[in-house]
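ok, trying the design again with the full structure, not the truncated one.
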């Protein structure tokens, strides 16, 4: 992964707009601003998610990953297997992002902390 400073700035600007939009929507909907601010992911969390999705798309795994995530939320017997597979794939992508863009390491490990990796 080759991420220039300009590209990172662009991703952060896009993430800032997305985060502000979500916060405004929640607050205008009646949610306490303090709660909304606490619950909405941080700026770099949006950037990490965008980079993860980009890597999945470049590798031709986006649809497969999405289906695995969807299946992991089902009530089928193999939901846990799908969840584990998707978590492992995502963890490897997150490690790659952290290696390539050290400025995002905190957000990467925050995302990785939500995964169940054995």
């Amino acid at each position: 992964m080759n991420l220039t400073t300009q590209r990172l700035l662009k991703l952060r600007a896009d993430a800032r707009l997305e985060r502000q939009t979500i916060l405004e929507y929640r607050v205008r909907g009646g949610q306490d601003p303090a709660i909304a601010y606490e619950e909405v992911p941080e700026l770099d969390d949006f950037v990490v998610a965008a980079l993860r999705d980009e890597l999945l798309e470049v590798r031709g795994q986006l649809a497969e990953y999405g289906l695995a995530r969807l299946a992991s939320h089902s009530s089928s017997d193999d939901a846990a297997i799908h969840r584990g597979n998707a978590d492992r794939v995502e963890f490897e992508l997150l490690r790659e992002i952290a290696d390539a863009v050290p400025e995002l390491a905190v957000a990467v490990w925050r995302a990785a902390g939500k995964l169940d990796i054995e």
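Keeping the full-length input from now on. The two ends are 26 Å apart (CA to CA).
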